[in-house]
Design goal:
mainly alpha; globular; 9% strand; 47% helix; 3-stranded antiparallel sheet; 158 residues
């Protein structure tokens, strides 16, 4: 099955490794990124995971939207992290149908439903928020007498 046919598969079906790898290779070929075999393999595994969860629309966006491919890679990374962290029981939809301007994700974990919209911030806005967040964390942990380290992850990357 070719990459362009992938979107026509039924929800819940799983594409084969070769088809997912073709999609991953096509995504990197259209970018300035010189992907290693490890990069291609990681993207292939992510594509397979999303397809298995019925998030074919996100996979297809990786191929169809060449100008904003890294925005979709960020969404892909977010979705795979969420699925990996919460396991197969997490219910997730990408750009759910039936809404005029749907959010990026509808996520259901147990009885809770989250509507999530991802936004790309300008560098100055992003740096400003990052700085404020780190300062708040520093202020809150000053009172802790125990020696410790902390890690803040502001983006999901691979």
């Amino acid at each position: 099955m070719g990459v362009d046919m992938m979107v026509h598969k039924k929800k819940g079906s799983v594409m084969d490794w070769q088809t997912a790898r073709e999609l991953a290779t096509k995504v990197f070929k259209g970018s300035r990124w010189l992907a290693s075999e490890e990069n291609i393999d990681r993207l292939t595994r992510a594509v397979l995971l999303l397809e298995e969860k019925g998030l074919n629309k996100l996979n297809q966006n990786l191929v169809d939207n060449r100008r904003k491919v890294w925005d979709f890679v960020a969404e892909l990374n977010f979705a795979t992290e969420l699925i990996t962290y919460h396991g197969p029981s997490v219910l997730m939809e990408y750009e759910p149908d039936g809404l005029n301007e749907p959010p990026d994700f509808k996520v259901q974990i147990g009885d809770l439903i989250f509507w999530l919209q991802m936004k790309k911030l300008s560098k100055s806005e992003s740096n400003n928020r990052r700085h404020k967040t780190v300062e708040k964390i520093k202020q809150k942990i000053k009172g802790i007498k125990k020696q410790m380290r902390f890690l803040c992850n502001f983006s999901i990357s691979w």
